[in-house]
Write a structure and sequence with these properties.
It is built from 8 helices and no strands. By secondary structure, it is mainly alpha-helical.
């Protein structure tokens, strides 16, 4: 029985799979994990600054955040690569920081909603106990806000994972780029692109189920 058809060849599927898993998936996971860490930390900082800073600082800060959030990620990647590539040798590092900062703007809004969801009585109790402002945020507000926002933050992490293919515009060899390289070399795109899509599905769908379960548990 012929192992190939006009649109699918199992030998090409077997040949491209190791590269997708060992090279492309590794880069994709590194970018997702590091980008998520950047967004989680900066997002919380942005939310707190916008909540506590004087209007003279918070207003322009908000403008910058909104500008980043409303600008397409692809445009940010291309622009940052053009500007920063002469100073930073690693294109991957540029991509990770752009991805992280882009999603910082979304996670900051999630954190803001989480902070707003902390009952007013918690703030009043901290004031009545004369707790320092820093301790109020560290021991009372931030832990509750993070607990309330974990499912939403997890969903943005999954979105970040699925948007790493945009790295293709700055030639980072993530999953889709590896698949395209194989296709252009052997003139067989179907197997490579299909397998890349299945790998994305296999990684993101179970994670989304876990986040859904977490959301129900925290509800």
């Amino acid at each position: 029985m012929n192992p190939s058809t006009s649109w699918w060849d199992w030998s090409h599927a077997a040949a491209v799979l190791p590269s997708l898993l060992l090279e492309g998936l590794k880069i994709t996971l590194i970018a997702t994990v590091l980008g998520t860490l950047i967004a989680l930390v900066l997002g919380l900082a942005v939310a707190i600054i916008r909540r506590t800073a004087p209007t003279a600082i918070a207003t322009p800060f908000t403008w910058v955040v909104e500008f980043i959030r409303m600008t397409p990620l692809v445009v940010q990647l291309v622009f940052a690569n053009l500007v920063l590539s002469q100073y930073i040798d690693s294109t991957l590092a540029i991509g990770i920081w752009v991805l992280g900062i882009h999603y910082t703007t979304y996670m900051a809004e999630v954190y803001r909603a989480g902070i707003d969801s902390v009952p007013a009585g918690q703030w009043e109790a901290a004031t009545a106990l004369s707790l320092p402002r820093l301790r109020t945020w560290r021991a009372i507000v931030v832990p509750q806000a993070i607990r309330n926002t974990l499912p939403a933050l997890g969903n943005y992490a999954i979105s970040m994972f699925k948007e790493t293919p945009f790295f293709v515009v700055i030639y980072i060899p993530e999953l889709v780029r590896v698949a395209q390289n194989y296709g252009s070399t052997y003139f067989r795109y179907t197997e490579a692109i299909t397998l890349a899509g299945l790998i994305f599905l296999a990684a993101s769908y179970p994670t989304s189920l876990l986040i859904r379960k977490l959301e129900k548990k925290l509800a």
